[in-house]
Amino acid sequence: MRVGLFVTCLVDLVRPRVGFAALKLLEATGADVVVPHSQTCCGQPAYNSGDRRTALALARKTARDLAGCDAVVVPSGSCAGMLRMHYPRLAEADPEPAHAAALRRLAAHTYELSDFITRIAPLERVPGRYEGTVTYHDSCSGLRELGIKDGPRRLLARLPGVRLVEMREAETCCGFGGTFAVKFGEVSSAMADRKCRHILETGARAVVAGDLGCLLNIEGRLRRCGHNGIRALHFAEVLSGEAD
Amino acid sequence: MELSPARFKTQAAASLADARLQSALEKLQDRFVVGRAQALLELDNADAVRDAAADIRARTLANLDDYLERFEAAARAAGAEVHWAENASDVNRILVEIAARHGVKRVVKSKSMVTEECRVNEALGTAGLEVRETDLGEYILQLADEPPSHIVAPVVHKSRDEIADLFVEHHRTPRRETIPALVAEARERLRPAFLAADMGISGANFLVAETGSALIVTNEGNGRLATTLPRVHVAVTGIEKVVPTLEDVATLLRLLPRYATGQSITNYVSILTGPRRPDDGDGPEHFHVILVDNGRSRMLGTDRHDMLRCIRCGACMNHCPVYQNVGGHAYGWVYPGPMGSVLTPALLGPAEARDLPNASTLCGACAQVCPVKIPLPDLLRNLREEQVEQRLRPAGERLAIRLWGLLARHPFLYGVASGVIARALRLYAGRDGAIRRLPLGRGWTLGRDFPAPSGRTFRELYVRRGRA
């Protein structure tokens, strides 16, 4: 199976390690993994900001970039949700049938990373090692658009050194919301603050999530408040052993 | 300062800085979020009931004109007078006319959001009528001269202490501390108002087309008193509230209280059908229904259509992390939270509420808990699209998105630009790897650092790794 990794623009720009961690996990499933070089951004920022035309242009481009793959895997519930749930909607309004068909085809075989390595190509051995207490934050799109809930937790539980402690309101938004975090900085900070309180209550040394956006938001608030000892990690970093 | 839907940002900032409000908002979680989850456990087929409820609402809206005509005929047959109001000033004119016709001086009101929407109290006051709110929360707000901050719990933003102070100031009685004592104090003031009133105004949770009834669910006895004691009763309600049959209402009633307050059923469910009949023990001599459009029919068949399914339970706001942090007044109009962020621009026009459709992370919690399955995030996104088309968003924002789009469509340019940005931010961050002021993202760094990029993009590192 030819598996395309879509790294997401945030991973590309801010924390490439997450991309390499995802690559390592996918390779561990035995899949033939490719990372098409022409990929950029899936168009979600434009889509959620109401610029449908830009979103459609980027969706078409992404579909072209990933056309040769049997499956596409994304280390982000939010971008995977965009490809899987929202590209078909953009397709509805696409005047050109060939483009619309390409968007639908891509949507049908796009998976969020934890979903792929638990359900589609089960990972036999988790390559990483991690020692310590962690808590898991459910990122909104992954949870509500794709139903990602138990998968990442079960994967983390397979690392013998990991102890998972649930936080209060793990399913409540951390306040990132893409451009929301910039447009409504104060409200967004207040939301992140609440998330950080719940993380601190668990006594965990790391908060783990499946979306880099949430992680940057949470980490940013933790650092601003002086909590330097707690790490904000993508589950792929933990599972692949790239966290250290 | 008068609240306005155009000033979400300023109002939200004020809410965040208000310690009393913040502690009052904590109550929402304990009461309504936990309450709803527990009440739903009692239904062993909650999902099926929810599907049925969404279907009833969708079916009715697909033939709204037909059901409204049926309602009108049935209500008239039961002896009610039915009035149609196209907008708020129609509502107020009709109310003043009804009052004049029946020689009304004093009015009592039960809770109704649509009369808030139409500023009925103000209009009736101008016409020389004395109006008393009788729902405990609304009564408190009338004393405080404040609008509601929640559609189910209008006074959720106030603490017991504030209410005790307010009663001392207005009632000029010794300060009482406990909730039962405060309730008793309000009751002492309200009872004479009920007895003296010539007219009672209520809303309606549903209108039943087959029987011509207005149905009200409430937890306070004031609803029954306001609808049965005065000579004249007027039910004011939005046209979207109609439901075909009593059986349909029964389905919706299995959800409404559970989603609203976590109750299996409210203390009172009143079904009001026409004026009192000769052998009735009580009830008004004259029964009027005002069917209010006020922008609702304009929503039919558009991207906002699904919003008309709303049964005003408030679950979306209780579960919205934005509402939980800023409360209802930040939204600036009658309807707050996610439903308000759709309804306010839909009813007042998108230019009046530019920030509201954007004041959401699209986390989806609202849609997850909506009993009639309104796709709120989709509706919010549609409104954002409309705003972009009408150039209602700031030019800088629209340009930034377009430029990003342009860059992302050209992989080579994108690669060069992202490489430059990653390095620049790395340098700017310095040693500890945190950016305290982001050049183009001041909103972000107001309350958070921005974790610095590692300095090389994935695409650069991946290419290098391939060569190695």
Q: Could you report the average pLDDT of chain B, rounded to the nearest whole number?
A: 96
Counting H and I runs of at least 4 residues, what is the number of helices of chain B?
Answer: 22
Which of globular, elongated, flat, extended, rod-shaped describes the shape of chain B? globular
Biggest interface and its residues per chain?
A: A-B, 66 and 62 residues
Here the CATH topology of the largest domain in chain B equals Rossmann fold
Task: Assign the structural class of chain A, choosing from mainly alpha, mainly beta, alpha/beta, alpha+beta, or little secondary structure.
Answer: alpha/beta
- DSSP, total strands of chain A: 8
Instruction: State the helical fraction of chain A.
Output: 40-55%
User: For this entry, what is the oligomeric state of its chains?
Assistant: heterodimer
- Strand content of chain B is 5-15%
Protein architecture, described:
The complex is a heterodimer of chains A (244) and B (468). Chain A has 244 residues and is an alpha/beta fold. Chain A is 53% helix and 12% strand. Chain A folds into two domains: 119 residues; 109 residues, Rossmann fold (3-Layer(aba) Sandwich), CATH 3.40.50.11810. Chain A contains 13 helices and eight strands. Chain A has a four-stranded parallel beta sheet with strand order 2-1-3-4, with helices on both faces. In chain A, strands 6-5-7-8 form a four-stranded parallel beta sheet, sandwiched between helices. In chain A, strand 7, helix 12 and strand 8 form a beta-alpha-beta unit. In chain A, helix 4 packs across helix 5 and helix 5 crosses helix 8. The two termini of chain A are 31 Å apart. The relative contact order of chain A is 0.16. Helix content of chain B is 52%, strand content 11%. Chain B folds into three domains: 118 residues, no CATH class; 252 residues, NagB/RpiA/CoA transferase-like (Rossmann fold, 3-Layer(aba) Sandwich), CATH 3.40.50.10420; 71 residues, no CATH class. Chains A and B meet through helix 1, helix 2, helix 3, helix 4 and helix 8 of A and helix 1, helix 15, helix 17, helix 18 and helix 19 of B.
